[in-house]
Amino acid sequence: MEIGILGRSLCGKTTLFNLLTGNEEATGLAAGQGRSHQGIARVPDERLERLSALYSPKKTTPATVRYVDVPALPDEHGREGALNLAELRTMDALMVVLRAFENPEVPPPGGSIDPVRDLAHTEEELLLQDQMVVEKRLDRLARDLAKRRSPELAAEQKVLQRCLEALEEGRPLRAADLSEEDQKLLRGFTFLSLKPLLIVVNLDEDEVGSNPFTNPRWAGWIDRPKVGATAVCATLEGELARMEADDAAELMADLGVADRALDRLIQDSYRLLGLISFFTVGEDECRAWSIRRGTPAVEAAGVIHTDIQRGFIRAEVVPWEELLDAGSMAACRQRGTLRLEGKTYTVRDGDVVHFRFNV
């Protein structure tokens, strides 16, 4: 599962990518043009930390999110050009970083700072690219259907015509009220405006703790389907990352900030992908496993190992809070809070699961 990070030059997206993943990529107008950077971020999860404290395992393994910093392709003069659309199409979701900070030493491209305008321009490019793909496919379908009637092609044509109407109206496909069956028909197109979108506003340090989305100009953006929005100050997050834990906590208290914006950003990314976590626990390892919401137990078992899925017998399940309160799986069994579930059980966020299997 990958999230592609995009944004205009000097918006701070590569700085954020480095902070999220611990990488040390160069930043700036000329840094890495035409070349993407990939990295992994650990998903902060207090539940896993508390379970690990209970078991004191040899190893604690959190869930992760993979980020890809996708630069704009340079034009013939080496300046910022169009989005790297081919690579963006392979992403599971998109994260657009928008500049809202002032820095006289780093003037913004275009000469002014306006995150809502920049988001609108980015969305317009995504819509235009999707519209071109739809129109090309509809032309081909019209020719094919003129030669032979096909229920499958007719169904595809009907869905694509609805998509074209939405795109011509300036609506992204994620807001086009498409059914699951419709989206199955569209899966092979990898439409950009159908992907979940996380809006990230990169703030000035003196705006830390404020909510930029109260501005009426954001209305119609942050309340759309499959869209998340958060604010972060990359400069502050960089300072906190270089500090000792106690010093960082003191600075956050002085600023009136309860939690790290970076942690919130990772968690928002995780939710945007439609992921939840279940846990396995023991003295060797406590681990968070990522699955899509609605995954049945037998498929969740396969995330750990295909042999467990193939030989699935049943799952022993207890909510993480119940396990912490009881102190052990054995105590949960005595209390009756440990349940035995079959293949079709839908694993819930925060379940602690032990799979019984035989191969």
Short description:
This protein has 13 helices and twelve strands. With 359 residues, it is an alpha/beta fold.
SSE topology:
Blueprint: E1 2-6, H1 13-21, E2 37-42, H2 46-55, E3 59-61, E4 64-69, H3 85-88, E5 93-99, H4 115-147, H5 151-168, H6 180-186, E6 197-202, E7 227-232, H7 234-242, H8 245-255, H9 261-272, E8 275-280, E9 285-292, H10 297-304, H11 306-310, E10 312-319, H12 320-326, H13 329-335, E11 339-341, E12 351-357
Parallel strand pairs: 1-4, 1-5, 3-9, 5-6, 6-7
Antiparallel strand pairs: 2-4, 8-9, 10-11, 10-12
Helix pairs in contact: 2-12, 4-5
Task: Characterise the protein shown here.
The two termini are 29 Å apart. Helix 2 packs parallel to helix 12 and helix 4 (115-147) packs antiparallel against helix 5 (151-168). It is built from 13 helices and twelve strands. It has helices at 13-21, 46-55, 85-88, 115-147, 151-168, 180-186, 234-242, 245-255, 261-272, 297-304, 306-310, 320-326, 329-335; strands at residues 2-6, 37-42, 59-61, 64-69, 93-99, 197-202, 227-232, 275-280, 285-292, 312-319, 339-341, 351-357. Strand 8 (275-280) and strand 9 form a beta hairpin. The protein has three domains: 2-111 and 194-272, P-loop containing nucleotide triphosphate hydrolases (Rossmann fold, 3-Layer(aba) Sandwich); 123-193, DNA polymerase, domain 1; 294-357, Beta-grasp domain (Ubiquitin-like (UB roll)), CATH 3.10.20. With 359 residues, the chain is α/β, with parallel strands linked by helices. Strands 2-4-1-5-6-7 form a six-stranded mixed sheet, sandwiched between helices.
